[in-house]
Amino acid sequence: MAFRSVGIAMGIAVLVANNCFALSEEDYLKSINAEASKLSEPSRPAIPDKEAVEANKDFAQTTQPEFEALLKAKHRGTYSFYESLLEKDKVEVYEAFVDGASMRKIRGMIIDRKMHR
Predict the structure, then answer these.
(1) Number of Cβ atoms within 10 Å of the Cβ of 83
(2) C-beta separation of 68 from 82 below 8 A
(3) For the chain, which has fewer Cβ within 10 Å, the N-terminal or C-terminal residue?
(4) Could you name the domain of life of the organism this protein comes from (predicted)?
(5) pTM to 2 decimal places
(6) Residue closest to 59 by CA, chosen among 42, 38, 76, 46
(7) pLDDT category, 50, cuts 50, 70, 90?
(8) Angle at which helices 50-60 and 87-98 pack, to 10 degrees?
(9) What is the pLDDT of residue 24?
């Protein structure tokens, strides 16, 4: 009888722990989504000026470790999701960044890959 009580108690403890983890992860996702919703798409001129062209060259020349350092420094929560992605997903996100995707789009890609893979 004592073994059964211990088993039931352990089962309840596992259920409670899983429920707490699910709630904290859900709260964290809400926080990340709220942070992302505050971002707006940058307005881009129809014909880029010289500075815009230079800025795009800078993105194109950014290495993946540099991108990761930028993400870690400026968007810590998003970076924590990014670092848990599969390597192929990290490469997809990095390539989108190099191609000039907005940070809002980058963050959406990271969350999408984290939640659906």
Answers:
(1) 12
(2) yes
(3) N
(4) Bacteria
(5) 0.51
(6) 42
(7) very low
(8) 160
(9) 73
Which residue segment(s) compose the domain that 63 sits in? 48-117
Same domain, 59 and 89: yes
Q: What is the pLDDT of residues 17-41, one digit of tens each?
A: 555 555 577 888 888 888 877 776 6
Does residue 43 belong to any structural domain of this protein? no
Q: How many domains does the chain have?
A: 2
In a domain, 111, yes or no: yes
Please state the three-class secondary structure of 49-76 as a single string.
CHHHHHHHHHHHCCCHHHHHHHHHHHCH
Cα separation, 11 vs 92, whole angstroms: 40
Residue 21 lies in a domain: yes
- Amino acid at residue number 89: D
**What 8-state DSSP symbol labels residue 43?**
P
Predicted local confidence at residue 54, as pLDDT? 45
Residue pair 41/102 in contact (Cβ under 8 Å)? The answer is yes
